[in-house]
Amino acid sequence: MRIAAVAEETHDKMSSQTDNVQTEDIIELKGLRVAVRQPRVVAETSQGHCWFPDLLKFSTGDLMLNHSLNSDANENAFNAQAVYVSTNGGRTFDFAYDVNGFHNGGGEPRIALPNGRIIGTSTFLKPDPQGDKRRFVAHRWTYDRGGRRYAVEPWGAAVSGLPKDVAPYPNPSRTWWSRINWFSDIIRLKDGALLSTLSLRFGEDKRESTVALISPDEGRNWKYLSTVADGDAVPDATEGFDEACLVEIKTGELMCVSRVGSGEGQRLARTYSRDSGKTWSPVDRLPAASVAPQICQTADGTLVLSTGRPGVFLWFSTDARGESWQSFDVIAFHNRVVAPASRMTSGQTTSYTAMVEAAPDELLLVYDRTPFGWSPVKTDSGERSQIFLLAFRVFRPSMQDSQQTRSQVKQGQGGSDRR
């Protein structure tokens, strides 16, 4: 399956992201080929945490990698994130700094604007005023200069108009007050307004619901628009519809895919909107499981989904609405090509990932390696917690005849065709 020294002049755009000569594995799927490169460490630590990665692309092309430095706990006294900036398409992330007090680990909704800024909100929200159950505020972020400058407006993003009371958190802390969590994407609608989703638990509900929010002013004020899926939408869910991602697909519909629990049996749930988020279709299920789905539609229309737990998987769909999916086992590939010291089990990762399209049909995926599971790395352990970057590109076989004559293509391992 290994293909040696594919010449980079055939892939000029991706050559700016990694070394001049690369080895690719060609993964054969039904109607699709995926060219995968060896994963590289882009962040690591010999003590503490280096996990829950996020990857964002500015309109300038610069990349920003974030990861959590703190425990994954709502009871944290404060939260911190590391920030890394790449100006060469992900080849290196040399400019780095930490941000304290405003972030949580992974999943914060953000959007890249055409003017070179990335804006977004914190994951956590607090009642405003104290004790209110239908109005909340979060921190509002702005990054610019390719991630070399940031500004935060403490409690500068307001959420209002929720249709029911949100349940309080049983043991409030300095960083968590209610059962409400902003894990999503932000997308721009045709009228210029921003749309996002918010996961929460209403009143006495046993499971989470997700609602759609709309903002006319770049994320300073968010108003309830609709309920995407309520706590009863997925009867076998252990958690509910509670970590959602959004994408506008080629049909013009919005597709929302969400976690419903953790583990192999907790398959992702999905719903569509044909009217910019005002109403949503009944929920169906995907073959993929289980946490923190991330979704991207490539330039050629391929839908790419990352998720896992256990493990990390990429899922691919070549039809317009994502009705048929094929998978690729990232951890199996990782263990086949990295040095023994960097190998991992399917339980040695949070399974939280992030993904961007760096160039048309060429993507970057980041995922973490946590050698002690949910425990931090100890200084004298000799181990490292790491963030890996995996570069890959997708293409339809009929469009790549010239490349097939240059490389021997073998059947990929780890792929499956499921519905």
List keywords for this structure.
single chain; 419 residues; 7-stranded antiparallel beta sheet; disordered C terminus; globular; 10-stranded mixed beta sheet; mainly beta; 45% strand
C-alpha termini separation: 26 Å
Q: Which quaternary structure do these chains form?
A: single chain
Can you tell me the residue ranges where pLDDT is under 50 for at least 5 consecutive residues? 1-20, 400-419
Rg, alpha carbons: 21 Å
What is the tally of helical segments? 3
Number of strands: 30
Backbone shape:
globular
Portion in helices? under 10%
* Alpha-beta content class: mainly beta
**On the 0-100 scale, what is the average pLDDT?**
90
User: Strand portion, in percent?
Assistant: 35-45%
Largest sheet: 10 strands, mixed
